[in-house]
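User: Need the bound-state model for 3-phosphoglyceric acid:
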Amino acid sequence: MIMNSIRYVDQMNIDGKRILLRVDLNVPLKDGTVADDSRILAILPTVQYILENGGMPIICSHLDRPGGKRVPELSLKPVSERLSQLLGEKVVFVDEVIGPNVENVTSTMKQGSIVLLENLRFELGEENNDESFSRSLASLADAYVDDAFANAHRSHASNVGVTKYINDVGGGFLMRKELEALGGVLESPDRPLVVAIGGAKVSSKIDVIEHISQVADRLLLGGAMAFPFLRALGIDVGDHRADGEAAKKARQMLDERPDTLILPEDFAIDDHGRREVDVKNLPSNGNVLDIGSRTIDRFASELNTAGTIVWNGPMGKFEQEGFETGTRAVAEAIAQSSAYSLVGGGDTNAALERYSLMEQISYVSTGGGAFLQMLSGRGLPAVRALSIETIKA
Ligand code: 3PG
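Assistant: Bound-state model below.
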């Protein structure tokens, strides 16, 4: 298992050391303050552990996609204030990422002090995984800890490049929790494993479906994810909804695993409000916004029998009045199930939040893209960079 080939912060000697701590504080901001602090809460155990064990955390993160330039609205300053409140400790915010000022602040840190650097993506070198930028980051600290699972599908300077220039590297507690949750489900799930995939990004998820359909006992496809499969079955869904490439892959999966894939039997379209139609009578230009009642019943009964559940992607446009039914029913069926449940993805987590069901899910991942990439079996470059084999090589 990949998580076993990584050393974690509690296996490192951090006493008296400056620790470059890469976290994912890519949080939504509203009117200059943090609108959702779940990603900040998720990294607190690692920060607290470092402090309690005599380490000095130099925290770094990206926020959004400023594209290598300084964008004042995307400063981590408001995040630094929220982090400080949650920790109950002073956090020294440095409004740069590298340079003499950063070197001065970090080299004079004392035990108990916490530094947060400015948005890594203000520097072009971050996303380019630039060697000299990676070296500069590495030179700030004695050891490196990566707790940014949600960014681990990116191959950037602060999570891949930097590991080449610092000897002592390891993962944080959030990284461990995420890898254990996802690794456990992929490698030894309680069966039946029922996976529900929805959402709109068909091209980026078809590989996930391909991989997970080999592991899952049942794969429920809602939202736009169902269209290539329906098209492959010869159902007229309107070609704009299902590109030919995805439909070819879908055809192959249907041939290989016909009993695993469960497709919608009906949908809800917007016809001056919700109107349900059989999948065979789908108007090719109709606005399909949810799965229909028969599909909801079928999906709920599959979820009721599950030993393990994975869910990513809403079943439709749940934010629109009249079209939340499918997404809400799936969320409720998962919340009520006694199966181990693993949920991930921005929209999916937002749906759970909206229906106040977060607490009833066994594990909610902080990852979106990283969660999906791991489900697709492609592995994560930042996790590979931490693995003991990679470091030795
Ligand atoms: C995320 O929110 O999924 C991560 O922080 C990665 O962000 P990115 O898609 O901008 O690389």
